[in-house]
Design a protein that fits this description.
It is built from ten helices and no strands. It is mainly alpha-helical.
């Protein structure tokens, strides 16, 4: 049985009320939903809330799931739940994006203080993006989803995803180059891109 067939079987079982089947789906996607929610919100507690809300909503509306991948469907629920959190927070206080450096967001090898500083600089630049740009960067360059699935997850036309991602990458590059220490670290690591629009993947991949 292929992974797609296996997932379809689990979804079918979960639709009949099989909680073990749904628990397996949660196990498969919980890390991804948390990672995306965390980078949108910058707060692990809020991200945990989004994870719980995502899977509760998914369980209650599983009968309506069709026409897309389960991963994209879950990420769309999570994205909407995270936006609800941001709107609620905006009415009360500033979103605590300063927490973003608490967790590794990019695949940068841990090798001392300079690498820790580089991770923090990348996290800070990501957190400084508008949330709509942050979402496409996280899904494309951190989680590696294909553009078509990102479009499904965010409910956007494919062209919008591509243009938004291009603008986000340019903004990330500008933010990193405007920080002298970040620029120095990226130059030392050989990861500073030579042209606008280079993706964070290229910034953080190994030698």
């Amino acid at each position: 049985m292929s992974s797609v067939e296996d997932e379809a079987f689990l979804v079918a079982r979960a639709r009949t009320g099989d909680r073990d089947a749904f628990a397996e789906l949660v196990r498969r996607y919980q890390r991804l939903v948390f990672a995306v929610s965390y980078r949108l919100l910058g707060d692990p507690d809020l991200a945990d809330d989004v994870v719980q809300e995502t899977f509760i909503r998914a369980f209650l509306s599983l009968e309506r799931f069709r026409g897309t991948t389960l991963r994209a469907w879950l990420l769309r629920i999570a994205h909407n739940a995270a936006l609800d959190q941001l709107r609620a927070i905006a009415r009360r206080r500033t979103v605590p994006l300063d927490h973003a450096s608490e967790q590794v967001a990019f695949d940068v090898p841990e090798s001392g203080i300079e690498q820790a500083e580089l991770r923090a600089a990348l996290e800070a630049a990501l957190a400084a993006l508008p949330v709509e740009q942050r979402a496409v960067v996280v899904l494309a360059d951190v989680e590696g989803l294909p553009y078509e699935e990102i479009a499904q997850a965010l409910g956007l036309p494919l062209g919008t995803v591509k243009s938004r991602l291009a603008r986000a990458r340019v903004r990330l590059r500008t933010l990193l180059q405007s920080d002298p220490r970040a620029r120095e670290l990226l130059e030392l690591s050989g990861r500073l891109p030579d042209r606008a629009g280079e993706s964070p993947e290229r910034l953080t991949e190994g030698e």
